[in-house]
Design a protein that fits this description.
Number of helices: 16
Number of strands: 12
InterPro entries: IS701-like, IS701-like_DDE_dom, RNaseH-like_sf
Pfam families: DDE_5
Protein name: Putative transposase
Oligomer: single chain
Mean pLDDT: 89
Distance between the termini: 79 Å
Shape: globular
């Protein structure tokens, strides 16, 4: 006879959740697998995503293949580099999945870029450039990402690799990295615009767009969003110039003249240690000289401790309250949470691929894994007093341990040990033979 206690009740609830997570995983993977004509890559893509969800110390085709029970990494390397499949169509499947599970008419599309540090110059898109991730100029890749934030949760949605002019002006370098002929130079705001247009064309429900100064300072992006009737709250620099009733003024000049009663204390969202309270003010701006009717504002955030100011250019096709704009501004930070989870838990930045196709395929499957985790957190019933809502990171651990943890045989462990040592011996022999050609 089972004696029911709070602990056994929660354990039973987790068993129910694990079944629902399994069903949700099938909902995500079934349309993705249908993109593959052959059974081998169809089977491998499932094993690949399960490997991304596993607690592997590093994630690459070798470790993922071993986790999947393969005898060598060749199959997974083929999946990422040589198999025939369209990563854009798979991202469309992920977008449809996110729309079903997290969709909301007031959802926010968040745009931002992240950098991956790389050595050398042959990895596609790499050069010395500023990386917000590192906070300085580094040898790195940069990619623009689009994420989806709704009252139900938030997930990465789409991506575009940024190619600097040093790459797009070098046809030989592009060809070596397998970059398609039709790909040319595009700024980060232009890449963001394409991602947003693709999401809207796919029927994703959304109302707002949010981004940092790299995107708020681009007037063409703002005009395109107005044309799509998408409201926006985009960060701008203190030197950003805006039209006012007194002429063109800098954002920081406008803030200096505000009276005390113009500021309101509002929360930008819940943080780990409480609400993120700031002082906020917003100023209505004259209509822009274009064909898009709507309402323009300058939103200003003031840190209550340091007095530091941040500025946002805002637009909406209909009037909205200050509190609503503050909510949109605060939700921009969800993409940082997504980046952290995707890098620390899913290996977003651990790929070892130099070519265009392989980079997009790896990133696409990481996006799929993250979307699954984000959606699965909304299904949890095993909540009890004294527990915070389940996080993406905790759900990944539970899903692996309760659903996909492999029962590796002794033979499989030994097979992989032999494979690694054989590969290392071949590499060692090759190095010595190459050295012998030039050294006495």
């Amino acid at each position: 006879m089972v004696v029911w206690t709070p602990k056994t009740a929660v354990a039973a609830a987790y068993r129910v959740d694990a079944q629902r997570w399994s069903e949700l995983f099938e909902e995500l993977m079934n349309p993705i697998e249908a993109r593959f004509a052959r059974p081998e890559p169809r089977h491998r893509v499932r094993g690949f995503v399960r490997g991304l969800l596993a607690p592997l110390p590093t994630k690459n085709c070798w470790t993922i293949a071993e986790h999947a029970g393969d005898e060598e990494p060749g199959g997974m390397q083929d999946l990422i580099g040589r198999a025939s499949w369209d990563d854009a169509l798979v991202r469309a499947d992920v977008r449809d999945f996110v729309a079903r599970r997290l969709g909301h008419p007031d959802a926010i599309l968040v745009i931002d870029e992240t950098g991956d540090l790389k050595k050398g110059r042959h990895t596609v898109g790499v050069q010395r450039q500023y990386s917000g991730t590192a906070g300085k100029i580094e040898n790195c890749q940069l990619a623009v990402h689009l994420s989806y934030a709704s009252p139900h949760g938030h997930a990465l949605l789409d991506t575009a690799l940024y190619l600097p002019k040093s790459w797009t002006s070098d046809p030989e370098r592009l060809a070596e990295a397998g970059v398609p002929d039709e790909v040319g130079f595009a700024t980060k705001p232009q890449l963001a615009r394409r991602l947003i247009e693709t999401a809207q064309a796919g029927g994703l429900p959304c109302r707002w767009v949010s981004g940092d100064e790299a995107y708020g300072g681009d007037p063409a992006l703002a005009a395109a969003l107005r044309g799509q009737r998408l409201g926006y709250v985009l960060a701008v620099a203190c030197s950003h110039r805006l039209p006012t009733g007194l002429g063109i003024q800098r954002a920081d000049q406008i803030a200096t003249g505000l009276p005390d009663h113009a500021w309101q204390r509002l929360s930008a969202g819940e943080g780990a240690k409480g609400h993120r309270y700031y002082d906020w003010a917003f100023i209505a701006l004259p209509l822009a000289a274009d064909q898009h009717a709507g309402y323009h504002w300058l939103l200003i955030r003031r840190n209550r401790s340091t007095g530091e100011l941040a500025f946002y250019r805002c637009w909406s096709p209909e009037p909205v309250a200050l509190r609503h704009l503050v909510t949109v501004a605060g939700r921009r930070w969800t993409i940082e949470e997504s980046f952290q989870a995707a890098k620390t838990e899913l290996g977003l930045d651990q790929h070892q691929h130099r070519r265009w196709t392989a980079w997009h395929r790896w990133t696409t499957l990481v996006i799929a894994a993250h979307a699954f985790l984000a959606a699965a957190t909304t299904l949890c019933t095993a909540n009890a007093e004294g527990l915070i809502p389940i996080t993406v990171n905790e759900l990944r651990r539970l899903f692996h341990d309760l659903v996909i943890k492999p029962a590796a045989s002794i033979a499989a462990v030994i097979t992989w040990s032999i494979f690694r040592r054989r590969h290392q011996d071949a590499a060692r022999t090759s190095h010595y033979e190459r050295q012998a050609l030039t050294e006495p």
